[in-house]
Amino acid sequence: MKKSNTFWIVLVLTCTSFFFANGQDGEAIFKQNCAACHKLGQRFIGPDLIGVNQKRSEDWLVSFIKSSQTMIKSGDADAVAIYEEFNQMLMTDLAHLSNDDIKAILSFIEQQSSSTNSTEESVEIVEVVPTNYSAEDVQKGQNLFSGKTRFSNGGASCISCHNVTNDELISGGLMAKDLTNAYARMGEAGVASIISSPPFPVMVTAYKKNPLDSIETSQLTAFLKHADEVSDEQEVRSGASLFILGGGSGIIIFFLLIELIWKKRLRKSVKEDIYNR
Question: In total, how many domains does the chain have?
Fold first, then answer.
């Protein structure tokens, strides 16, 4: 009898620990990958996710979270509708998450949904009053973006991966998305949220030990707002053209060096005179 009771106690504790761990994992994964654009109970950059488990099938949600862009390109009606509703802003593909990770997120959302009496009609839409940034804020943000001023925690400058079309800057990196009109697409809250809590794996890795502080976030937002407002007046320059020009010049210089070295080559054997005698 004792043995039987011990078995059931261990089983219950194991199951309780398993479900509790899953709930915790789901919340942590949500905060790391989703919270920058989604709020629970509020419409933010992306849609409110309360009740999403009842609106779409699990298979659909897993596919959409892994690659919404693939589903939009395939013509999936629901995916296209969400894309159009939210100003054609593409959700970041989260292909690095496993199916179990995504199911943990969905489980966490379902738990939050069951404790919230929220309906589509009562969803709160976050209205953000744009901040009036000063010219000094814009300049400081530009200096941070370009790397002229280092981040307080030593993080990499934005321009190493991103480009912003602005006459005050050189062409930026091609590794990540062009941010010239990011403010128009995401608004102030969206830009600030992405900068302070980036959902992109590369940014997470780059700034995990070098986070930006709130002042730097505000100044970068000020610069991106300004860059968007004046973008029509700027000369469009492509980092690709500089890459091609620099690469072409490098190849030409390389071949010229080979030619110079070849001209100075040894043209006959050091023992040729002995051989001729």
Answer: 3
* Residues 182-206, mean pLDDT to the nearest whole number: 84
Q: What percent of the chain has pLDDT over 70?
A: 78
Side-chain half-sphere of 135: how many Cα atoms within 13 Å? 0
Could you tell me which residues come within 8 angstroms of residue 125 by beta carbon, excluding any fewer than 6 positions away?
Answer: 42, 43
Q: How far apart are CA 26 and CA 185, in angstroms?
A: 28
- Angle between helices 99-114 and 2-33 in degrees, nearest 10: 90
- Quote the CA–CA distance of 189 and 274 in Å, as a whole number: 84
Boundaries of domain holding 184: 135-233
pLDDT one-digit tens code per residue, 133-153: 999 999 999 999 999 999 999
- Give dist(CA 216, CA 176) in Å, integer: 20
In the beta sheet, which residues pair with residue 125? 43
